[in-house]
Write a structure and sequence with these properties.
This is Rab family small GTPase. One of its GO terms (molecular function) is GTPase activity. By secondary structure, the chain is of the alpha/beta class. Helix content is 31%, strand content 27%. A 6-stranded mixed β-sheet has the order 2-3-1-4-5-6, with helices on both faces. A two-stranded antiparallel ribbon has the order 7-8. Helix 4 links the parallel strand 4 (92-98) and strand 5 (126-132). The radius of gyration is 17 Å and the shape is globular. The structure holds guanosine-5'-triphosphate and magnesium ion (MG).
Length: 206
């Protein structure tokens, strides 16, 4: 799937991000808070995969576009071929758990991080682990995920999609890390839409 199929017409670097994690941890809320600045007390449980995008500015004042794919929790079992494709195209993976739900934390190692090891991923892909629902202080059931994050080479941040805490920071950190990898030639071949020629282009990035 190329960037221009999804409306990238500005010629700016476009990066694909997938969001995974257990049911109801707040994946859709997390993405909607960032892309639309809104929070709803309830979203219909996601089916398949949903797509949103937003531009972000990097430290050197460049714009990059994030294409964010919000996966339903059962995507990899129900849509094996589709999921494989998304994983192999992703520049970054956001793995979300709910700090009030111990099972969603345990499933990180037993399912999600293991799932990633089964997939073909881009070299130099970026990973971030998100402990969501940080506003529910009294219901916290997971003390700290820092060491797990370190073990799997992920950054770790706690967020509240409800209050908006750390949401922009999580995405800007991720965007910056992807951008740095891209600038350093981390993603050897990349496709994006050119401003003057909207036809798909294959470019070699050094
Ligand atoms: N208090 C609080 N509730 C949240 C937060 N994020 C999400 N929720 C609530 O958690 C529930 C599930 O949120 P969703 O965003 O639908 O979760 P999801 O991971 O996309 O769920 P599936 O698509 O079913 O896998 C909803 O009732 C949200 O309102 C948060 O940061 N704080
Ligand atoms: Mg959802």
């Amino acid at each position: 799937m190329s960037a221009d199929e999804y409306g990238s017409d500005s010629g700016i670097p476009t990066f694909k991000i997938i969001v995974i994690g257990d049911v109801s941890v707040g994946k859709t809320s997390f993405v909607s808070r960032f892309c639309e600045g809104e929070f709803k007390e309830s979203y219909p449980s996601s089916i398949g995969v949903d797509f949103k995008s937003k531009e972000v500015r990097t430290n050197d004042n460049s714009n990059v576009k994030l294409q964010i794919w919000d996966f339903s929790a059962d995507i990899s079992s129900r849509f094996v071929t589709v999921a494989k494709h998304f994983y192999s195209e992703a520049h970054a993976i956001i793995i979300v758990f709910d700090i009030t739900n111990k099972e969603s934390f345990q499933d990180l190692e037993s399912h999600w991080l293991g799932e990633l090891q089964q997939q073909t991923l881009r070299e130099n892909h970026v990973k971030i682990l998100i402990g969501n629902k940080s506003d529910l202080v009294e219901r916290r059931a997971v003390s700290d995920a820092t060491s797990l994050a370190k073990k799997y080479n992920c950054e770790y941040m706690e967020t509240s999609a409800k209050k908006g805490d750390n949401i922009d920071k999580a995405f800007s950190t991720l965007a910056q890390n992807i951008y740095n990898a891209w600038k350093n030639g981390g993603f050897k071949e990349e496709e994006w839409a050119d401003e003057k020629d909207s036809k798909k282009k294959k470019c070699t990035l050094q």
